[in-house]
Design goal:
Number of domains: 1
Strand content: 25-35%
CATH topology: Rossmann fold
Helix content: 25-40%
CATH superfamily: P-loop containing nucleotide triphosphate hydrolases
Shape: globular
Largest sheet: 6 strands, mixed
């Protein structure tokens, strides 16, 4: 479903500042993968590059989505193809009511606005519909707002950047439950328009979100590329026992020999 080959990416406004280098990733149709890594390893850059954010420029390699090369497509084109993203720190947008944005999203899918109230209730967000987007929202409220938008957008592939960041333990349970619905890993409900071709990539630094959501495979990123792939729980145990500094020193990353992988 999503295939990335030999990706090399630099910061658009800072030529020669390479963030991702020789990065490869393949997520088959219907699978949800998790990406671990220390702060500054390039995880968020990868998600924003996949989505087409102009802050990053692809120097080498390709990004294929459902068999189509999207490397040079705009954010709008990628969204229309079925990509959706929840950012770690989305912007505040004074003057744009969450209700108006929600109505726009359901209108794009030719659905009724009744769906907005139902999903907002599930996310405990009904009172926020009349408020400006993300303005004076807490960390957990912003995450629930992002989930609301993605559930109404109904993308085929979801990019989630640290969904547990800034969220307290009580709110994390709700966010985890609704993230499972978003990713299609909960029993299908007719209110949510998922098909069998859904998939996702979840970024986490701490791994706490994995207590609540199901993922099929894990990857570890350091120094701007992926060196280890394997069972998510095993990778997380190694990270918790050894720490990211030990991961960063591993020859799988320092040698950039991507044939050396945990299976």
């Amino acid at each position: 479903m999503l295939k990335i080959e030999n990706l090399k990416v630099e910061v658009t406004d800072e030529p020669d500042k390479v963030i991702l280098d020789d990065l490869n990733l393949n997520i088959p149709e219907g699978e949800v993968h998790v990406l671990f890594g220390p702060n500054g390893s390039g995880k968020s850059t990868l998600l924003q590059t996949i989505m087409g954010f102009p802050a990053y420029r692809v120097l080498e390699g390709s990004i294929l989505f459902r068999g189509e090369d999207i490397t040079n497509k705009s954010i709008t084109e990628r969204a229309k193809l079925g990509l959706g993203i929840s950012m770690q720190r989305p912007p505040n947008i004074p003057g744009l009511k969450l209700q108006k944005l929600a109505e726009f999203l359901v209108n794009q899918r030719r659905e009724t606005t009744a769906e907005i109230g139902y999903i907002a209730k599930k996310l405990e967000m009904r009172e926020f519909l009349s408020r400006d987007l993300n303005v004076h929202f807490s960390g957990g409220e912003i995450k629930r707002s992002e989930l609301l938008q993605l559930l109404l957008q109904a993308p085929k592939f979801i990019l989630l950047d640290e969904p547990e960041s800034g969220v307290d333990i009580q709110a994390l349970k709700l966010i985890g439950e609704m993230t499972n619905v978003l990713l299609g890993t909960s029993p299908r409900q007719p209110t949510y328009p998922w098909d069998k071709s859904r998939g996702g990539l979840v970024i986490t630094h701490t791994g706490h979100i994995l207590d609540y959501i199901h993922v099929d495979r894990g990857h570890v990123m350091c120094h701007g590329h992926i060196g280890c792939s394997g069972t998510p729980s095993r990778l997380l145990d190694d990270i918790r026992n050894l720490g990211y500094p030990e991961c960063a020193k591993c020859h799988r990353f320092t040698s950039k020999d991507l044939s050396l992988k945990i299976t």
